[in-house]
Amino acid sequence: DGGITQSPKYLFRKEGQNVTLSCEQNLNHDAMYWYRQDPGQGLRLIYYSQIVNDFQKGDIAEGYSVSREKKESFPLTVTSAQKNPTAFYLCASRAGGQPNTEAFFGQGTRLTVV
Amino acid sequence: DAKTTQPPSMDCAEGRAANLPCNHSTISGNEYVYWYRQIHSQGPQYIIHGLKNNETNEMASLIITEDRKSSTLILPHATLRDTAVYYCIVRVNYGGSQGNLIFGKGTKLSVKP
């Protein structure tokens, strides 16, 4: 089945450690996005990529890094510089080229710093 | 960015229509209105989108006012499984961030038996 897959579903990290969240899609979508969601809040954009080997900062990029070496993959690294990393992380993808295509979301990764 | 305003919460009786309002008074002419919903601890799910005309699909109907400053999402026969947070989003369409979705806090819809 076509879709977007995030792994792992739950992740625990010790303070001071970097951790990488996986996002893979087989929808042949050009654009991919990472969002962060805190309890009771909407989604905030961390990074996005419109095409392979290119990505842009979103509203809250500090303490995060991404890469887009392959069209189907857009991993997010939460670095030790992120002061409050405990959150629900969501990845999305969208077909590029037109402004009226919908985004598809993964099921999310819940990161907890212990 | 065209921002949206939604009521924080709404209740609806099972089997009745749920009408979720959204204000987007600063929307520009080429911006679409999108609706997503998020069931607890899951990724958001696309529902419907529109530009000017009313739209209907198997999930819902979208009514956009003639001046495009507001819209209403209609779930014609709400079920308990429709309990979720519903997000109304106007598509950002400028520069390199074309296509980004800017989420607000949405409306928490509770469908009650």
Task: Give a topology summary.
The complex is a heterodimer of chains A (114) and B (113).
Chain A lengths: L3 E4 L2 E4 L5 E7 L5 E7 L5 E9 L2 E4 L6 E3 L9 E3 L8 E8 L8 E3 L3 E5 L1
Parallel strand pairs in A: 2-11
Antiparallel strand pairs in A: 1-3, 3-8, 4-5, 4-9, 5-6, 7-8, 9-10, 9-11
Chain B lengths: L8 E5 L4 E6 L9 E6 L6 E6 L4 E2 L4 E4 L5 E6 L8 E7 L16 E6 L1
Parallel strand pairs in B: 1-9
Antiparallel strand pairs in B: 2-7, 3-4, 3-8, 5-6, 6-7, 8-9
> Which class of secondary structure composition applies to the elements of chain A?
mainly beta
| Broad structural category of chain B | mainly beta
The string of secondary-structure elements of chain A, in order, is EEEEEEEEEEE
Main sheet record of chain B = 5 strands, mixed
**Strand segment count of chain A:** 11
How is the biggest beta sheet of chain A arranged?
7 strands, mixed
The neighbouring-strand order within the major sheet of chain B is 1-9-8-3-4
Shape descriptor of chain B:
globular
Helix-residue proportion of chain A: under 10%
How would you describe the shape of chain A? Answer: globular
Uncertain stretches of chain B: none
Element string of chain B (H = helix, E = strand): EEEEEEEEE
- Count of beta strands of chain B: 9
Report helical residue fraction of chain B. under 10%
Largest interface: A-B, 30 and 25 residues
The proportion of strand residues of chain B reads 35-45%
Account of the protein in words:
- The complex is a heterodimer of chains A (114) and B (113).
- Chain A is mostly beta strands and 114 residues long.
- Chain A contains no helices and eleven strands.
- In chain A, a hairpin with an 8-residue loop joins strand 9 and strand 10.
- Chain A is globular, with a radius of gyration of 13 Å.
- The model of chain A has no long low-confidence stretch (mean pLDDT 91).
- By secondary structure, chain B is an all-beta fold.
- In chain B, 0% of the residues lie in helices and 42% in strands.
- Chain B contains no helices and nine strands.
- Chain B has a five-stranded mixed sheet, with no helix packed on it. A four-stranded antiparallel sheet of chain B has the order 2-7-6-5, with no helix packed on it.
- In chain B, strand 6 and strand 7 form a beta hairpin.
- Chain B is globular, with a radius of gyration of 14 Å.
- Chain B starts with 8 loop residues before the first strand and ends with a strand.
- The interface between A and B is medium-sized, with 30 and 25 residues.
